[in-house]
Each structure stands twice: as C-alpha cells, then as structure tokens.
Amino acid sequence: MAEKEKLLSQIPAVHRLREELSRKHPGLPEVFYLRAARRTTEILRQEILEGHLRGLSPEEVFSRAEEILSEEARPHLRPVINATGVVVHTNLGRSPLAEEALEEILSVARRYSNLEYRLSEGRRGSRYEHVRDLLRELTGAEEALVVNNNAAAVLITLNTLARGKEVVVSRGELVEIGGSFRMPEVMAWAGCRLREVGTTNRTHLRDYEEAISEETALLMKVHRSNFAIVGFTKEVSGAELVRLARRHGLFVVEDLGSGCLVDFARYGLRREPTVQEVVASGVDVVTFSGDKLLGGPQAGIIVGRAELVERIRANPLNRALRIDKLTLAGLEATLRLYLDEKIAVERIPTLKMILMTPEEVKRRARRLTRLLQKALPERARFSVVPTVGRTGGGALPLADLPSFAVAVEVEGLSPEELHERLRTGEPPVVGRIEEDRFLLEVRTIFEEEFPLVAKALKRVVEGAGA
Ligand SMILES: *Cc1c(COP(=O)(O)O)cnc(C)c1O
C-alpha cells in the first residue's frame, strides 16, 4: 500500500507535463497538450492502483505522454494498410489514386483554377467541360456529364427521364448495392414507378414488350454487381432492349455499376462489358462509378445521347449532386491515362492490382515473408499460402483472382487477437482470417508498405510478450 502511495505521488502534475509536451512538440493546438497530459496521468494512476506499475522513471512517463500526444494529434481519417486482398474495398476507400491524379488534385487544391471560367473568352464556363471531351473520346458517347457518385447519376437520370412515369426493369436486376442503395427505393426517390417484369431467374423480351404502355418512360438494365444468377436463366441483352425501345419510341438506360474502360478478357480475366461496348450497342444513357474498376476518385459518370444528357444536366437536382473540383482534377488525370491502355494498366493502382499475375503475387508474398522473418526471428511464424482474391466493389462479382497470402502465427495470440492488435495499431493493418489463420493478402499491400507491416507486427509481437 505504501509503495502505491509513493508511486502515485511521483506522477507529474498535469500542467508540468503539458508544458513539457508543448516545449518539445510545438505548433499543435493547446487542447492536444492538455488532453494528452491528462490522459497520461489518468492512465498512470490506474496502472499503479491496479498494481501493474512497479516503478516510474521521468523518461518513461514522458515517452508515454508523447505517444498519447501523437494519438491525440493524428487525424481521424487516415491511411490504412489493406491486407484483405479485396481490391475495390468500399469500407477502405475503394480506389487508391494514380500519382498523376494526386498531382493534379494538389495543384488545383492549392491555388485558384479555371473551374468555371473559359480562359480564351474571359467569361463564365462550365465545370463539366474539363472531362467532357475525354469521356466522349474514351466511351464513344455523344455527350457526358459527371456528378457526385453513381447513386446520384442513377437518381438524376431517372428523375429527369422518367418522373411521374413507369420504368420497366427485370426482377432479376432489382439489386441492393449496400449502404441502402436499392433499386426500387431509388426509383421511388426519383419520382418514378417501378414496373417489374419477368422472374428472378428468367426474363424474356416479350415480358418487357407486354409491360409497355402509355405510362412507360424507359426500359432499364442494371448490372448485377454483387451477385450472379446461375442455372436455368435468361436475360435480355441491351441491344435487344434497344431494338424493342426504338419500335415504341422509348429510351434504354443502363446502370453499369462499375463501368470499366478496359476489356479484362484480354488479360485472361472474366469478361465484363466495357462502357464503349454498351454505348455502341445503342443504349441511350449509361451510368457508372468513378472509383470502382475505373480506379479514379468517387464520381458518377453519365454518358449517352446528347439531347438526353443535356436534359439531365439542366435538372435542378444537378446543383445538389454536383461534383467537386478536387474530384474533377483527379478524374481528368485518371481519364487521361486511359488514352493509352498500356499506360492505364501500368499507372492506375486498381487496374495494376487486379491484373497482377499469380506469379507476381507469389513473388511479393515471398518478399514480404523474408522481410517479416528478418524483423521477427522469434515468436512468430510465417508461411506463403494460396488464396482466392476478389475484385470487390461490385465488379466482376464472381471472378476469382488466384492469389497468395502470408499466413502469420504469433505465439500466445489467437488469430482474432492478432488481427485486433494490428487493426488498432499505427498504421492500422486490416487483414483477414480464414480457417483459423490470420492472413496478410499481398495483392492489395503496396510494396512501399512492406516495412510498415513489419514494424506494426513487431510492435504487436513485442507487446504480446510484455
Ligand atoms: C456501385 C453501384 C452503384 C452505386 O455507385 P456509387 O458510385 O457507389 O454511388 C449503383 N449501381 C450499381 C449497379 C453499382 O454497382
């Protein structure tokens, strides 16, 4: 008891600790020093009372305080190491951007720009002009518009072209994307009525045809982003729908979800229809995301017939859904890379990770293993194991990406405990547990993050021994 009293009396005063932190690490808001000093003394107090602390050196106390200060001062939204193997991971921010996109964002963010100003004429311009020609060239569409995200693109397209009328959709395509984006509800918010046709597994052209009436505004196709219907199935292609729509003077809208500009089949992956193909098939308006397979910033891209896209642009909702200048800068730079596919697959991280060959993934897994073994020769075991990766983000939903991961076992820690400690460390590492093993999937870990993973693991292992 007397020993605890003595230790408690050695805890420095909050104001002294605060002053010392502020002197050693100047430039932060005052509240951070105060909070860090308070938390440090509280933690020390508790550890002493619980009998966890036997001695208290001023140096140790101060380094604990510095650690707590760095936690206080660090942003809430911050980088994470994605060791899940899911390339387009919505919870982890979807697509990391290409260097070219980052540079454009920085230069536009730092200073003023010609966002809505035509320099040649010295008068007001439109923010959409910066990506319009690029999108027309890349997709073959007559006209293009960009909004905040694809959910917004679908909403404004339906609201503009079908408000107060019916939209015919197959029952096999009434998808829920997650984050409460459900096709029937989006239709309701857009002010149109859903006319479901066909059955879950089979929808025929005559089902659409029989549903067409005075009330019909358009026929719609929705990409089954996160599921597949297999077995006894039938769906109507966009081209068939276009022919039917033309006979009745109607439009066809397709929500492509991910919307890729590169034909993945050329690289040995599952075929996904490209935006160019869908546009060429005659579909009047196509919408897709900027941050899924495209590998750019969050955005909703609308391409299609000039007269229809122009009507969508003029919808007052567009002002509420409009795209931000930083996004535009990143999107323009990303789209420019697509002008040469060789450059796109080389420079856009999302494409690069998806197209990484199993051999390359295995080489990286071995490299990471060697690094980890060197950093942690004791109490941890590493092995390279084959796994199956996923593209994620509602893209190539069933496409397996043969992959490799580093399985990590740490003495005295369950896979769950290991994962929790890695997730809550700095930088956080999010991995995955499979068959009671903790896995670091290397496809989605950047090469320059390897040393950080080693450091994070080292801290966890050493902490586990304390
Ligand atoms: C992902 C997705 C959306 C939503 O796109 P966001 O860019 O996330 O808003 C809409 N429709 C489909 C089919 C999708 O896959």
TrEMBL record:
InterPro entries: PyrdxlP-dep_Trfase, PyrdxlP-dep_Trfase_major, SelA-like, SelA_trans. It catalyses: L-seryl-tRNA(Sec) + selenophosphate + H(+) = L-selenocysteinyl-tRNA(Sec) + phosphate. GO terms for cellular component: cytoplasm. Pathway: Aminoacyl-tRNA biosynthesis; selenocysteinyl-tRNA(Sec) biosynthesis; selenocysteinyl-tRNA(Sec) from L-seryl-tRNA(Sec) (bacterial route): step 1/1. It is an enzyme of class 2 (transferase). It holds the Pfam family SelA. Its EC number is 2.9.1.1. One of its GO terms (molecular function) is L-seryl-tRNA(Sec) selenium transferase activity. The modification N6-(pyridoxal phosphate)lysine is found at residue 292. Keywords: Cytoplasm, Protein biosynthesis, Pyridoxal phosphate, Selenium, Transferase. It comes from the Bacteria. Its cofactor is pyridoxal 5'-phosphate. It is found in: Cytoplasm. GO terms for biological process: conversion of seryl-tRNAsec to selenocys-tRNAsec; selenocysteine incorporation. PANTHER family: L-SERYL-TRNA(SEC) SELENIUM TRANSFERASE. Converts seryl-tRNA(Sec) to selenocysteinyl-tRNA(Sec) required for selenoprotein biosynthesis. This is L-seryl-tRNA(Sec) selenium transferase. The lineage of its organism: Bacteria, Pseudomonadati, Thermodesulfobacteriota, Thermodesulfobacteria, Thermodesulfobacteriales.
